[in-house]
Amino acid sequence: MFRFNAPTAPPEWLIVFLGNPDARHELTRHNAGWIAADYVESSVGVRIRRAKFKSHTELAVIGGARVLLMKPMTYMNLSGEAVAAAVRFYKLAPERVVVVHDDLDLAPGKLRIKRGGSDGGHNGIKSVTAHLGTRDYPRIKLGIGKPSHPEHDRIDWVIGKLDKSSLDTLRECAELVPDVLETLIAHDVETAMNKFN
Hints:
This protein has helices spanning 32-44, 79-90, 123-132, 154-159, 164-174, 177-186, 189-196, and strands at residues 13-17, 50-52, 55-62, 65-72, 97-103, 111-115, 138-143. The protein is an alpha/beta fold. The chain has a 7-stranded mixed sheet with strand order 2-3-4-1-5-7-6, with helices on both faces.
């Protein structure tokens, strides 16, 4: 489906996968964005590992456009620092920044595409919004659900390791992200929303 041709000009889009960089956060709910990044890497035949903008990055072609794939290494709460640095450097408009992240308000395995809106208590989105100075950018949300018990701490929930069943459910959702990005970039956000929401 995807063919990688190394871009020879600056990227037209920035695709940001939110997560936390150290091993203790690997395969946690909060790293859903990085799990999705694995599928995008496989689809376009690259590895997101070049150090730039306080991130691991790589150039690729998706939907016929040049894109910069980014995994911020700043930790979730400071993700906006990395995003803003790339946006300034490449002079990208906010509507050309797509953020892929976990969402507590979506049931596990559900995917939702949205443009704008509140941060929903997500510190990574809160940071991106603050640094971009706008909420009007596309997001691909991967459902992780809420704790079943009301007294369960939400922070413990999002940074908790996924059991096999929960991880399988999240991966089924995350593997749709390459197709979502292809549609969103080749067409527009509304087309992607109509197809995948």
